Amino acid sequence: MNNSTAYISPAITVQDFLAGGGFLTSGSMEISKWENEDETISLY
Amino acid sequence: MKTYISYIVGIAALLFSSCAKENVVNSRPDTSSDGFSITASVSETKTANDGMNTKWVAGDRITLYHAPAGNSEYTKDNPFVITEANLASNKFTGSLNGTIDPAASYDWYAVYPYTESETAINPTCIPVTIATSTAVQSQVGGNGSMSNICGVNIPLWGKATCDLGTNSVNLQMKNMAALLKFKVLNTYFDSDFKLKNIWVKIGDEAIVGTFTVDLTQGEPVFTAVDAKTSMQLDINQTEIVLGNVKSNGVQYAEVYAAIKPFVAQAGTLLRITVTGEVNGESKSYENSMTLPSAVSFNAGKIREINVRTTADPVYICEADVVAMPADLAGQLNGASFIDKDRLALSTINSSNEGIWVYSFKDKSSVKIMDVGTGVYPWKIKYNASDNKVYFISKANGYVRWVNPDDKSNGYAVNDSNGDAKWYGADRGFMDIEFDKDNNMYVLERDNYTVAKFSKSSGYSSDTGANEGYFYFGDPRKPRSMCTDGSKLYVATHKDDGTESRLWSKDLTSGNVTTIAWGSGNVISMMMDAQGRLLWANNSNKIYRTKLKDDGTQESLSGIESGNVSGWPDGGFMPAELVPSPDGKNAFYIIDSAHNKVHKITIY
Q: What Å distances lie between residue B355 and B96, B369, B432, B434, B478, CA to CA?
């Protein structure tokens, strides 16, 4: 590995990288789950 | 010399902590680039919702920014997009702009949805829409479904700080909106309710519409652009019909709406109007309250708000929650909870008179004390301070106690020689209460008074003689009483039927007030955990009201067969009313005519 060059995630292959014009990247993002508040407001 | 390079970035959220170390692979050699154009659809795609999970939809795009850590020189990157093939792995593809030092740490900001706004050149001023720009949201899914929130704008954001030399950018995307979960109770007693919309206003806060958001302050900071201070959730893409209380019991709708997160301070007026159709006619009811303390509507969290369709309370009766032995029919009279599981009961006017404990857990009763025959242990009261069930003998005029655990027993009121004091039948002992200091009060119907026995004197002092502690005078006969610990509430009547009256006496100041006039003979009273006074007369009617500090009371509610779902068949004698031991809005009726106990829950 040459740290003086650019980096991509290990999740992407070199072929993907090249097919993307050399700049296509890949990653993932998870979305936080909704959570219930502990207390309820009751209007009655 | 520092080498600047072009780069490709993997954004990995994931199970690792932010900026976890990860192997990287060499890519393009040293160049600079403006990236390239993504050809993915630019249509506004909404994330989908699956219960408490939010999921990406193919075509979802995010905006990415980066800047040297702690620096405000932001670079806006090209859109990152997720394809159908990458949905399962939550992978986005895209490219960055500018140059980057792989050994340097950067702040990374991601925002969904992608914005092409020219003002969104950095994460301090990103235009977002919370819910909708028109202040109207639509419920897409049916009752209880969260699917509608995929139909409105709920922006997502994430931030991480790390370098790219040895790390991946790990981003946990968080919701920018808060959710309101309206739990709507149909309080129409014998009519179905078709929910049409819910309108909400929380003080004068701008809760939906368009804002700019600054993501660099730790939590998103919103500035209103074209925001609305009220919103409406329309139920127009699905049908939610709530059955009526009489036929269907408790009927709730659960629907969701998004708002901007904020803190509503104490004193804020919260108004929610529920509109629907009842027998084809439009009906609206506004639920409102002034918040007694601050309430946070937090991003990513769901705040449940209970509302109803009418002002009237709803009563649901669960009949026969306690059934005593059949041969005691007509004998059940006094009752008091020992704890949440155990109800102490007294039986009168039979050869089987005594004190009983019914266990809701075991669904059975045990007689813990035989009191003899013709004693009439009329009313009882459990005192937690000494773990004793106290009871009065109407026939003999004494006060006794029994320990519900070891079944030991004794007399509560003794004379100067330590002998049990019997006042005889003439005093007409018919009720017993304790105040917050555990002083004991005994209602003497035929002596027209309530006697006080102080705890400090070991209940040996007797103010019941002569005119007593709370004297009403002939011909006003006290019949039932209860206390909230600070005031004593007593019902009196005249035998000729010309007067029925409720009184209160402040146990500190001694001030006496008439709080209600009525008719009939009030035979049982209670104060519930919500501060409402309930009383029942010998015509099977129960009344409920709240006494205000200014001496007035809220409107009187009548609880009877016509407005209670599950009301037991036939008449009964409500010998005692007992508050629910769990503090919930419910009470128990001792049905002496049928030897049963019924539970009424109030909604």
A: 81, 5, 15, 19, 24
What secondary structure, in 3-state letters, does B322-337 show? EECCHHHCCCEEEEEE
Give the nearest partner residue to B8 out of A17, A36, A42, using CB atoms.
Answer: A17
Chain B contact set for A29 (CB, 8 A): 11-13, 56, 62, 90, 92, 110, 158, 171-173
Residue of B nearest to A22 (CA): B28
B127 touches chain A (CB under 8 A): no
The confidence score (pLDDT) of residue B27 equals 27
Q: Which two tokens stand for residue B265?
A: 């301070």
- Residue B246 scores a pLDDT above 80: yes
For the residues of B312-372, what is the DSSP string, one character each? S--EEEEEEEEE--GGGTTTEEEEEESSSSEEEEEE-SSTT-EEEEEETTTTEEEEEEE--
Region B542-564 average pLDDT: 86
Q: Enumerate residues 477 to 496 of chain B having a beta carbon within 8 A of any beta carbon in chain A.
A: none
3-class DSSP string for B435-447:
CCCCCEEEEEHHH
Quote the minimal CA–CA distance from B603 to chain A in Å: 8
Cβ distance of B95 and A25 shorter than 8 Å: yes
* Residue of chain B nearest A13, judged by CA positions: B25
Give ipTM to 2 decimals: 0.75
Report CA-CA distances (Å) from B587 to A5, B249, B363, B528, B578.
75, 17, 18, 8, 6
Contact A5 B5 (CB under 8 A): yes
d(CA B515, CA B536): 15
Tell me: the pLDDT tens digits for A1-44? 333 233 334 333 333 333 433 333 444 578 899 999 999 999 98
Map out the domains of chain B with their CATH numbers.
48-308 (no CATH), 329-602 (2.130.10.10)
| Residue A28: per-residue pLDDT | 57
User: Containing H/E element for A19?
Assistant: helix A14-19
B36 in A contact zone (CB under 8 Å): yes
* Binary contact (B304, A28; C-beta < 8 A): no
User: pLDDT-derived band of residue B149, with 50, 70 and 90 as boundaries?
Assistant: low
Q: Which amino acid is at B362?
A: D
Contacts of B254 in chain A (CB under 8 A): none
pLDDT over 50 (residue B522): yes
